[in-house]
Amino acid sequence: MTNPHDARTILITGAGSGIGKATAERFHNEGWSVALVDRDEEHGRRAAEALSRDGATCAFFRCDVSDEADVAALLEDVTAELGGIDAAFNNAGIEGEQGATTECTADNFDRIIAVNLRGVWLCLRAELKHMAQQGHGVIVNCSSVAGLIGMPGIPAYVASKHGVIGLTRTAALEHARQNIRVNAVCPGAIETPMLERYMSSTEGGREAMEATEPVGRIGHPEEIADAVFWLCSDRASFVTGHALPVDGGWTAG
């Protein structure tokens, strides 16, 4: 890999808000060029414009990560505009509807799997091909504490995030000799629009969520961004195939 302080480019999906936006800002602050990718054009462009005002090399790309043609075009467009990618953070995801396994509809299950698992796989596949050709690369997939343990009431989400870890470990083994590292980050309760929707769906949801965290608080998107940056840096050069919890101790019990 090149020196982490050299000019490098990262592709970030779901970059219009929450963890993705915070991660784009983190890499921008470290001098990286950033490809901000989101299905929501308004939020994605706004995030990219905010970075551009600070003189960053960045660009917005609209993409539905569950669409194979969209993802194929994305890699071509990013390469044409920014000259390729050195790293990727496959972060785009949805929470879907809550309900026990017996109440989960097929439509809900398919929609969540399409974005959270198929979307990661499509991006991962395209990124691996690109990185194999250039001879280096780092990929971080966004799983969740729900990818490490069971959680009643969100079966499709749990299944999708467990699947992300399986994809991560398999790809890491397949490409370990090609100077390509693949890891996953597993956030706990993080202050994002997605979590806010989840907490607001039940009375006392925030208090209950805070109580599940051993550290007694909800995490910040910037704390996940820091973990992603470390995994993409040469300081993590011996780390691949790992699912890193950043969860305030949630999964330690």
TrEMBL record:
UniProt keyword annotations, A-Z: Oxidoreductase
Claim: Repeat is one of the keywords in the record: no
Protein name, per record: SDR family oxidoreductase
Superkingdom per UniProt: Bacteria
Record-level Gene Ontology MF annotations: oxidoreductase activity
Similarity field: Belongs to the short-chain dehydrogenases/reductases (SDR) family.
Protein's UniProt keywords contain Transmembrane helix: no
Pfam families documented for this protein: adh_short_C2
Span of domain Ketoreductase: 8-193
PANTHER family, per database record: DEHYDROGENASES, SHORT CHAIN (PTHR24321), SHORT-CHAIN DEHYDROGENASE_REDUCTASE FAMILY, PUTATIVE (AFU_ORTHOLOGUE AFUA_5G14340)-RELATED (PTHR24321:SF12)
